[in-house]
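Exam prep: given the inputs below (a chain plus iron/sulfur cluster), describe the expected output before reading on.
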Amino acid sequence: HDQTHQRTAPVLSHISAAQMKHLLDTTDVRETAALFAYADAVSAAYFDNRIFFRGIVEFSNVCQKNCGYCGIRRATKLHRYTMPKHEILDCARFCMERGYGTIMLQSGELNTPQRIDWLVDLIGEIKQTTKQMDTKHPEAPKGLCVALSVGELDELDYRRLFEAGASRYLLRIETSNPTLYAQLHPPDHLWQRRVECLRALKRVGFQLGTGVMIGLPGQTTDDLVSDLHFFRDIDADMIGMGPYVYQEGTPVGDAHKKLRERAGQTEQDKMEQNARMVDLTTRMYALARLFLGAVNIPATTALQALDPVGRETALQRGANILMPIVTPTQFRKEYQLYEDKPCIDEGAAECSACLAGRVKWAGKELALGEWGDPPHFHQAS
Ligand code: SAM
Ligand code: SF4
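Solution:
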């Protein structure tokens, strides 16, 4: 849909695992600055310093799974909501009016025939409603691009959602290390099943998003290097990576907390730890940009939980996407995946204005009214 997929940039697809590991670990300030600058140059070559938006609607916190780190896991005592369709359609209109180009529908996992039917109808209505809307951006594709992040489903269901009009799907592998995955999830959550879902999504024709959490308890630098290879091998078009953030009341969070208490962690230690996490996460963005080239890389919301300007920093180190939260304010408190999740008290309009300011601050430009397909997807097809 845009010219960017014709471009080439000096990607480093031949970079070795040892070099990646070195760049993740190095304390050499000049080497680190060079890594970030190179990643920014590759992003600029592909995207002209433009930042694309996806409005994210966290439409339901109902979840049948029990991932060990997540604040909305089934075992959490929480008021469970599913937004009514008409409110989600209001969010879609809002995204269209703001020129966001894409709506990302995210929820807990609920793999029932009723939920799939409901989603199929919803996607159709979003496409129909937004296609009829005028846009200030005459060259924009008609209607919103619909992206989904609703977990592990059967291939036939993925196909129905694709045929209903959804174009993109985000399913993080969480970690490419199956042993670590097993430590963070109950025994019936299978790493292999997640890989099979990713393959099914690709077969169906979705633009494929995957990713990992960074800084998971027990994760090593070697794991992160393997993550980058996993993204290449699965042929991902979008890489959604964010720091793991502690959430009270979860098994992984509570075990982690005990260790920190035993070590006598102070507020100062916590701040330093947060800064290290932002640094490590953005090194992963930079390496993903260098290694994988023209994929989309969102500056994830979780970064801002650790650093007020974490997302802007990411935009200067390889990220090219921002995902303003469009979820109505009354639901945000009930979609708290982790501690200090930002923008809990804001509304969609405030988020929009705030993020536009942040893009300018980072020295980038807003790309409004475009879907912002990852050039990688078109190169591959
Ligand atoms: N339920 C779907 C799934 O799991 O794929 C989509 C929604 S889920 C809330 C989206 C992502 O939130 C997960 O893939 C996970 O990486 C992230 N997440 C959950 N708990 C987190 C935490 N404590 N810190 C950082 N990210 C977290
Ligand atoms: Fe549910 Fe997704 Fe949270 Fe796992 S990460 S508990 S599937 S919402």
